[in-house]
Amino acid sequence: MKSFIEDSEIVGVVALLVHASKLDENYTNDEKIIIKNFISNISKDNDPEKILNDAEKLEGNSNQILNFTKLIKNKPIEFKKKIIKELWKLLISDKNIDQYEANLMRRISGLIYIDDKTTGELKLQVLKTN
Prior knowledge:
mainly alpha; TerB-like; 7 helices; 0% strand
């Protein structure tokens, strides 16, 4: 897949994925693997482990998601959909989506200009493949 993101933006986007993974206070190795696979898919030239570590630090020092979503909101729709699918993969990976995770998805979708219908369709696609 063509990357729509600059290398300088990858850590911020990955920090959003880390934030979603940590929301249920159970940040698992499975979630880290999903995130590292995402990094490998969008950036062949970067070390997924380093990017994940940098993103975890960035996420730990941030108190809002706006810094992360602003990197995504002006990207092409294909890239936004890829991010939403990755977020669903992370949230579904523990087989339980709580109200906070569902709320986070609504907030992120709104902030990156993805409508609820599209977000729901992407969730169904992820559920079918898991």
